[in-house]
Every structure is written in C-alpha cells, then in structure tokens.
Amino acid sequence: MLYRRFGRTELQMPVFSCGGMRYQFKWQDVAPSEIPADNQANLEATIRQAIEVGINHIETARGYGSSEMQLGKILPNFPREQLIVQTKVSPVADAKEFRKTFEQSLRNLQLDYVDLLGLHGINHAESFDYSIRPGGCLEVAQQLQAEGKVRFIGFSTHGPTDVIVQAINTNLFDYVNLHWYYINQWNWAAIAAATDHDMGVFIISPSDKGGKLYDPPPKLVELCAPLSPMVFNDLFCLSHPQVHTLSVGAAKPQDFDEHLKTLELLDRSSEILPAILARLEAETIATLGEDWVKTWQINLPPWEEIPGQVNIKVILWLFNLAIAYDLVDYAKMRYNLLGNGSHWFPGNKADHLDKLELRQCLAQNPQADKIPQFLAKAHEMLAGEEVKRLSKN
C-alpha cells in the first residue's frame, strides 16, 4: 500500500480507503440478532482483507443503516492505533440532536473515539448554516474533540462547488470528502482551496458515481485500454498529489483486487495516462462535435433559476456521457434520481419541456438553440422508473 499525508491531520492515509456503505445488511437500523451470519462473516472478511493489504482507513456513517453496528463487532479486535476510523453525522437544526446521534455512532462502533468525524452532507445553504452558526453542529464536534472522542473534524458534500469552497474557506475543517473523478471534474476549484488550507482530500465513490466502472460498457473498456476503466480512473485521480485517498465501496473481500493494480503504475502515470486521455477526448469530440464539447456549459444558470427547476447542467452532462462513452446505464441511474434526490442530487428531469419557457435563462449560452432539443433527446433516452437514494431503499 502507498500512503499520503492527509493534510494538516498529519495522518498517513492509504491511497485507498474502505468505504462502509456496500457491505452492511440494511440501510435501516436493525437489532444485532437480525444480522444474518453470512452477511456479518462477509463484512468481517472484507475488513480483514482491507487491513491485510494496508487499507487501514475504515469509513462509515450514521446514515448507513447497520454498517456502524456491524463494524462494531470487528473493529475492536484490531489494535486501535493501527486503524483510522471515520464516521459521519448529518448536520441538523438542533445541535443537541447532533451530539446524541454521534454518541450512538460511538456506541455502535464500540470505540472510545473516532479519528475522523465528518459533518455529513454540507450540500446547500441550510446544512452549511446548521454546521457553522454559533451553537451549531461544528461547535458540538469541537466539544467532542476536546473530550477526546474525536481527533479531527471534516465534512462530506454532494453540493455545488461554490458551497464546498465556502465551507473550506472557513478554515474550520481538517479534511473534506467530495466528488471528483475523470467524468466529473467540476470540483477541482474545491480541491485547490482544500490544498491551500492544508486539508485532507478524500474522493467519494470514484468507481460507482464515477461511472459504474465495476460494470463498464465495452466502448469504455476499449477507450481505456490497456487499463481497465476502474484502474484508469484510479490512476487519473491519484496522479494529482492534491488527492490523498479514494473510497473503495467494497461489498466483498475481492473488491479491492482491481484497485490494487493501480499502485505499481503510479510512478509511471505521466507515461501511461496521456494516450488514454487523448483517446477519450477525441471520442467525445467525434461523437458530440467540438463546438458543443467546448461551449455547452458556458453561462448555464443554476437549476434553482431555471423554469421547472430542470437541472440542465447535470442532464446534458449525463447525455454527453451516454453518447460519447456508452455510459447509458450509469446515466439512467443518475437521471432517474432527479426529482427524488433532495439536496443530495437536486433539480428535476426534462419531462415537461413543452410547458417551460427556457429561452430567457439560456440567452447567454452559445448552444441555446440546441439545448432544448438535447434535453428532449436525453429524456427520451434516459427516462425510466424513479430511483431513490440508497439510504431511502
């Protein structure tokens, strides 16, 4: 395993982390007696394999159902100083409730402290306010830190880049969990800001939200050769020293195997990546046209300012991925979450375009004439049954 300094925490962080939202029994709390023996055995085997290969950062959240409680049956078996344990608790209006929820996390994990506590989901103005206002959840986290129950405080986010940067620039957090990978590089400004503040940078779900790369379409496999799409994406992310660790949402012990192939390639990333990156970019231009590729995002208003709150930026992004790389299944999964993802994946689908007047909000975009047609095509291609966030299943 390779390790990187996790910003000002000074923790030596493995470049892969063991994310805890795939191996648990249920997304809701259940009694320990309800956990099937085979499920618990698989979880414990996965943790043992992670630690065996040097992945000693175990990451979970109060919102991951039975994950914490199941981890609590295995983590105390390891020397505590060898583990980096992170849990996350969502900021809420009542900071006392935040403390109560964290105390439950600690009981579930059967630990005296966690190394990393993340405020889970600073995604919009409201969750930001709940976190940093006087008497808010961050103050409670700092009290827990003073009590020795938390070593370092960070936040996770699925929010827009400006909200992330705003939270980073408070200089009140030691690290950030955010989305950034090859198919979605919008948050680079947030990573740059985190680097300026010497914060740890943890990349959320690079293989799932980064394109369902564990089940890639043949076209993407061909474009990423000789690497698998998963190894290409890992190498792309880790070739940037500002990125410290990538989450591996392992569901079974073998799920680490493909990622580990990246380690021996890191020293040669500057030799390996350019040809693949050039091929991916050329295919995007060949399928979508250079003018569209270079200008479709210009002056797009945020979804809140668009009639019907249609999330035009996300819809066009998904459409582009489906056309250029055949990431249709991925695009469908994400598209059908729109309208049902709350502040974790906000905005609506393009399903009522005939009732909306978009000309004014698109007036400053050079592709204004094409965008309504592309939105209609995207809806025709991607629409299906509504998808719920995993934690709501």
UniProtKB/TrEMBL annotation:
One of its GO terms (molecular function) is oxidoreductase activity. InterPro entries: AKR, AKR2_Oxidoreductase, NAD(P)_OxRdtase_dom_sf, NADP_OxRdtase_dom. It holds the Pfam family Aldo_ket_red. Residues 39-167 form the NADP-dependent oxidoreductase domain. It comes from the Bacteria. This is Aldo/keto reductase. It comes from Atlanticothrix silvestris CENA357. The lineage of its organism: Bacteria, Bacillati, Cyanobacteriota, Cyanophyceae, Nostocales.
